[in-house]
Design a protein that fits this description.
Structural class: alpha+beta
Number of helices: 32
Strand order of the largest sheet: 3-4-8-5-7-6
Largest sheet: 6 strands, mixed
Helix content: 25-40%
Oligomer: single chain
Number of strands: 25
Strand content: 15-25%
CATH class of the largest domain: Alpha Beta
Number of domains: 4
CATH architecture of the largest domain: 2-Layer Sandwich
Radius of gyration: 27 Å
Length: 950
């Protein structure tokens, strides 16, 4: 499903280039839908019942996993924010992770992350959903906790103010600091919707957040957080009778309020004519355009045809938008579309980020042309089949884990109120005809209904457009329920006892078959029961660390060009073939290795592997495709270099490694990409893409015998071409620490990064440092997040990364914050790194970090790609396959002494460098007082080709 949130997330990723008991709900779809290629999408199979207080419960048992997911979906979203309180539903999402009368703040993190699980939540137009995945023996504790925060949430002044500050930083990071954040988060919804509250941003505004009071928040909870306004979904490894008893015990005792919910069913008026608007914002590197049309709500029968239309328009490189705007005309660097079908209204939105030198008018004209083509002629049979195959394969992947399946069910319930609609979705999509698509295009995608948006860089003549916060809404503060009982955390002796965990269910690590073909290609096979999906990963020693000076980006350019033509297939033919199969085939170049991957339904996987082999073995590297990729890469770099976080990350590598190849950005540089020739790419491929030094990993619904046959057929007669290059040392000599400020006037936030030269993956200190990293910044419950986000509200989130490589890796700890807090945040990061090197973690910290690592490992085993990645990483670093089964034991054997000693020796703070990217005028004096040797480099002068950075 695509939604406004998904559109925003996809755009961001592109820019960085980087009831009583009843039978199972699926009985109405007893015969699973069949994809055109023969793929079976199994029904979800949840059981349904309703408690006397109105809570609807859906459960599905799956003993193939050691985990269980618990999700509560509340029918309240940003459309229900009261007038003058936009962002309220989202703010309250944050508050729901705090105390209840029976447990203190952050308990949800203790109950999930600390036992090897995870938790999170999201808010969109119509829903606020909370989800946790945990080892199955902790299920009762989560049922207790979810019921307790529904029934007795504690909202006090300090928590309210702290989380409001965190949301402000989330706003600054996602809206103000991102070059296209204002466009997708604020201006697109505000322009598409004229009367409906969907026109307000989900995250709200600083002004409305400041206007909120604690009484407002408490009334919001009393109004919307009630049993009859929620769906409880549980899926995974459990005993059904036992689970039913826990749900009755903990949720069944909650009373439902004796009052109706506020009515909120605004009908968006039909367009009366086309609309056209231009917005301006700071730090917009390339113009962007949006062309949108109001369409239908989620439960409208036309949604299926519009979904397939959207797939034809923009899914993959064979889509109409990509082929026309990016590939043929080369007028945009990126383009896509999204069908936003919500409970009460919907829209189809197409967007494009223009290529350098191209105008918004060209982009809008091209988008209009593609809409006209859909109206004027039926889509081809091939396009229709391709789009359906992609959608069916996507539905299969969306059901791979218990968390995935619960998520699919939740969206169906929120948008239709009916569980079985999720299974009928497949049949609805398959029934769509070419005539249906042309009919909905003629009905909805007309010029008279169109909304054109231009998004341009602000300047003196065109100041930045201000967010409109004076927006009416159907629900008023006065409409909300009274506060009711105000809960406080009870004294410890008076609290309801937290249930004890049950017996653990250990994840099973499957055996790995390991053999070589006659040409030296190593093949590893790990079979996984479950859905009919197969994954393949073919990896080579061909990373940015192998590039020559002045040619930064040749590794990623080589990888990108593999899918852009072979000696027998053109780039459009490759894209079409991939999408007709419902497959995912692509490349992932890194610092040390480049990987070509394929994921496909099992019945078409042989064809997908044959295609992958052709890409790797017979690339054409035509000059025209090289030039296309070069221009796209340069445009993508311009966008990346407008965003503080990525700039800090790229600069950190140069600061630590200097002019050595590990210091060069994997994505390339402006100068490096411009300098790459076809000869460079051909030579890199011949020297580095060699079967004798490659590793092929199969995972999923495939046996060893099947894998051997497929590998031999696809790669058995492949031979090395000439001698391999000797691998040059990519790290250089250690360099003295630096303090570097990259000045970006008007930046929406400052990005703060602490960096050190780290270790290799095979280093003896890998395990203690990896555990210590999760304690420092590798999880929500980390020390950095506690100090910077939870205690002080200075950042939406912090992180640290061990950054291991084949040789000394790049350790970083980072956060984004408001510009004037950059120095304070840098001090806090340094202090926490110092604490790890000078004091031992507590026993409880060790236990929880060990659980986090083993839990993440167990979760990776649940998907074919995750399982394949674990196996591939062992092989790439020449580690034995026995490490797969030994991993949990090695983590559990770690001691506090080992963690402290490893940090003291390998990551001492006196060797740390500091990089800050932001508006230097707000913090440079305070920083210079602490670091007189600070270097200030204007962003316009930044040169990532050299250690000097200028």
């Amino acid at each position: 499903m695509k939604s406004r949130l998904i559109l925003t997330a996809c755009a961001a990723a592109l820019m960085l280039g980087l009831p009583a008991a009843s039978p199972a709900m699926a009985q109405s779809a007893a015969t699973a839908a069949q994809a055109p290629a023969g793929v079976t999408v199994p029904p979800l199979g949840f059981q349904e019942r309703t408690l006397p207080n109105g809570l609807k419960v859906y459960t599905a048992r799956d003993t193939s996993t050691s985990n269980v997911t618990v999700q509560v979906w509340y029918r309240v979203g940003s459309k229900d924010d009261p007038e003058g309180r936009s962002g309220f539903a989202h703010l309250f999402e944050h508050l729901m992770f705090k105390a209840t009368e029976n447990f203190p703040d952050e308990t949800f993190d203790r109950l999930t992350e600390d036992v090897g699980g995870n938790n999170n939540a999201f808010t969109s137009d119509d829903v606020t959903a909370y989800h946790e995945t945990i080892p199955a023996n902790h299920l009762e504790r989560l049922i207790f906790a979810e019921a307790d925060r529904l029934g007795s949430l504690v909202v006090n002044e300090s928590v309210f103010e702290s989380e409001r500050d965190v949301v402000k930083e989330e706003y600054r990071q996602g809206v103000l600091a991102s070059p296209y954040g204002r466009l997708f988060s604020l201006f697109v919804p505000a322009t598409i919707y004229q009367e409906h509250p969907y026109r307000r941003s989900t995250i709200g505004s600083i002004e409305d957040l400041d206007a909120a009071t604690i009484e407002d928040v408490r009334r919001f909870h009393s109004t919307f957080y009630r049993p009859d306004n929620a769906y409880l979904i549980v899926a995974g490894n459990f005993d059904q009778a036992q689970l039913d008893g826990w749900i009755d015990q903990y949720f069944g005792r909650l009373d439902n309020p004796d009052r109706p919910l506020p009515m909120n069913d605004v009908r968006e008026p039909e367009p009366t004519g086309p609309r056209d608007v231009t917005y301006y914002a700071p730090n917009v590197p390339l113009p962007a355009v949006v062309l949108a049309w109001p369409t239908v709500r989620y439960d409208n029968p036309d949604r299926a045809a519009l979904t397939v239309l959207d797939g034809i328009l923009s899914t993959g490189e064979s889509s109409r938008l990509y082929r026309s705007l990016v590939y043929d005309q080369q007028i945009t660097s990126q383009t896509s579309s999204s069908l936003d079908a919500s409970q009460q209204a919907g829209a189809l939105t197409a967007f494009a980020i223009m290529a350098e030198g191209k105008t918004p008018e060209e982009g809008l004209a091209a988008l209009r042309t593609e809409a006209a083509k859909l109206r004027d002629a039926p889509v081809t049979d091939a396009e229709l089949a391709e789009a359906k195959n992609e959608l069916i394969a996507g539905a299969l992947r969306e059901r791979e884990t218990v968390e995935d399946r619960a998520n699919v069910l939740g969206w169906s319930l929120i948008n239709t109120g009916e569980a079985a609609s999720a299974d009928r979705e497949i049949a609805s999509l398959q029934a769509v005809t070419a005539a249906d698509i042309q009919r909905v295009a003629r009905l909805y995608l007309t010029d008279q209904r169109s909304i054109a948006i231009r998004y341009l860089n602000a300047d003196e003549a065109h100041p930045a457009t201000v967010q409109d916060v004076d927006v009416t809404a159907p629900i008023k503060v006065a409409d909300m329920a009274p506060v009711g009982r105000i809960f406080e955390l009870l004294p410890e002796g008076q609290r309801a006892a937290m249930p004890t965990p049950g017996e653990p269910v250990e994840p099973a690590t499957p055996p790995v078959a390991d053999f070589r073909l006659d040409n030296g290609l190593r093949v590893l096979v790990v079979e996984k029961d479950g859905l009919p999906l197969v994954s393949a990963r073919l990896s080579f020693e061909a990373g940015s660390g192998d590039e020559v000076p002045g040619k930064s980006g040749v590794a990623i350019m080589t990888g990108a060009l593999l899918t852009q033509g072979t000696t027998s297939r053109t780039a459009p033919q490759i894209a079409t073939e991939i999408e007709q199969l419902g497959a995912q085939i692509g490349t992932n170049p890194g610092v040390d290795f480049s990987t070509v991957f394929a994921n496909a339904p099992a019945d078409v996987f042989p064809q997908a592997l044959t295609l992958m082999a052709d890409l790797v073995r017979n690339p054409a590297f035509t000059p025209e495709e090289l030039e296309r990729q070069r221009l796209q890469g340069l445009d993508s770099m311009k966008i990346t270099l407008s965003t503080p976080g990525p700039v800090a990350s790229l600069a950190a590598a140069r600061v630590i490694y200097g002019d050595a190849t590990y210091g060069a950005p994997t994505v390339g540089t402006l100068n490096g990409l411009a300098a790459i020739t076809r000869e460079d790419v051909v030579a890199f491929h011949q020297r580095r893409y060699r079967p004798s030094e490659a590793t092929l990993v199969f995972s999923g619904a495939i046996s060893q015998a099947e894998a051997r046959t497929l590998a031999q057929s696809a790669f058995g007669d492949w031979r090395d071409t000439g001698p391999a290059d000797a691998r040059a040392a990519p790290i250089g000599d250690p360099l003295p620490p630096r303090v570097v400020v990259i000045d970006q006037p008007g930046a929406g936030q400052a990005a703060v990064t602490l960096a050190l030269r780290g270790i290799s993956r095979t280093d003896d200190d890998y395990f203690p440092l990896n555990l210590g990293n999760t304690l420092l910044g590798g999880s929500f419950t980390s020390r950095l997040n506690q100090e910077i986000r939870i205690k002080r509200g200075l950042s939406y989130g912090t992180r640290s990364s061990l950054g291991v490589r084949r040789e000394d890796g790049l350790f970083t700890a980072s956060a984004q914050t408001r510009n004037d807090a950059a120095v304070e945040v840098s001090d806090l990061i340094l202090a926490e790194l110092t604490r790890l090197a000078t004091t031992q973690p507590t026993d409880s910290e060790m236990t929880t970090r060990q659980a986090i690592l083993t839990g993440a490992f167990g979760s990776s085993l649940e998907t074919v790609d995750g399982l394949g990645s674990l196996v591939a990483n062992l092989a790439l670093y020449d580690l034995p396959m026995s490490e797969l089964s030994a991993y949990a034991g090695r983590v559990r054997a770690l001691t506090p002494e080992q963690v402290q000693a490893a940090f003291a020796e390998r990551l001492p703070t006196d060797r740390a460098s500091l990089i800050i990217v932001g508006d230097a005028s707000t913090f440079i004096d305070a920083l210079r007082a602490k670091h007189p040797n600070v270097e200030v480099i204007p962003l316009t002068d930044l040169n990532l080709d050299t250690a000097l950075l200028k």
